[in-house]
Write a structure and sequence with these properties.
single chain, Proton glutamate symport protein, 0% strand
Length: 425
Amino acid sequence: MNAQKIQQFILNPWVILACLVIGFSLGLALPAVGLKLAVVGDIYVDLLKMIVLPFMVSAIVFSVQKLFQEGGAGSIVGRVVLAFASFSIVAAIVGILTMSIAQPGANLSDTTLATFGRIVGDDLSSTDTVMSLYGVNADGHQGKTLEEVVLSLIPSNIFEALAKGETLKALIFSLMFGMALGHVPNRIAGGLSQTLETVYQTCQTLTRWLNYPLPVVLVCMSASQIAKSGIEPLQAMANFVLAFGLASVLCLTLAVFIIWKRGNASLSETMDALREPFVLAIATRSSVTCMPAMIEALVQRLSFAKAKVELLVPLSVSMLRVGPILYYACATLFIAQLYGRTLAPQELALLLAASVLAGFASAGMTGLVTLSLTSMACGYLGLPFEAAFILFLAVDPVCDILRTMVLVIGNTAAVSIICPRPLKI
């Protein structure tokens, strides 16, 4: 069996589903073993993250240099802004419509409400539960000002930023360095361009190698997740998880349709091209680690322009946060329904804007930090997110997978919209 057939077998949806079922069953039957298996997933994600920053820096610097040398940079700026804004708004609208129709937080049974009460530690009829999400500084100031946020994005020391894995700082440096390199004569910059291309190809090879242990990693990661959270919180939050899952499926379907129509491949070929980034999104719950697979799908499998794809994929992953935006809209409406609050049309419009703003604010964030930004959308509407925070914390391993899938496939669709359509063969 050659390497390509092994890759196809590993990424087969039925193999992935079987691994998840085995992992969840193991985590439920032997939770102590499941918790110990978490280290396998941690090692795997760290190996992928090890590749990401050199891959991103080399791809962006090389691509921006080529765009400036070929005069193609200015032509896509308007399309980037329009696509990012459109995809963000559509994600929020899908979340609002799905939750408004499904009403997962309304008319809950007494048993479910009792479970919520045990998890929260207070009666749901009360909004007095307080949980500090961000902490308060010694001078009483809470959170960061706009000036502090902007300053935090500027890498005063790029080597320190790379060492700490600060993706946004590395992105800003790469964009600026690539623009400057694009103005350096090619006879001087040619050697560096070849080096960057070598780093890029090497990182792609390493990523393909790391696909081989993926089935074992999926079993270990799913077992550790279910062993950590247990089944009760999933049952109690089942309505929300199902509604958010439905909204995610709608977004994924729309994204796949866009990619299919923008490319020249058939629907089955498009689905096959998206298999690797889709599976990596499930396995790693990290959009950053999916960037090599996204680029390979668009360039190698769907024939989009390489230079533009290599620039736009890292940019979209960092800045276009469709997965978190969808989540913020769904979670905020669920909280409103949980507390019996009906939102007026103007409040729904405010929720849309707040979800988009919270999504852009989550740029560069992962895990529970992303989850905590739900309070930003709730704050505009006066909803007590702090009291319900632990409910969402309990089911976040599942929701995080859905957020990552929407982000990865949604951003792939956005890049396909921004890039010129591939020529027909």
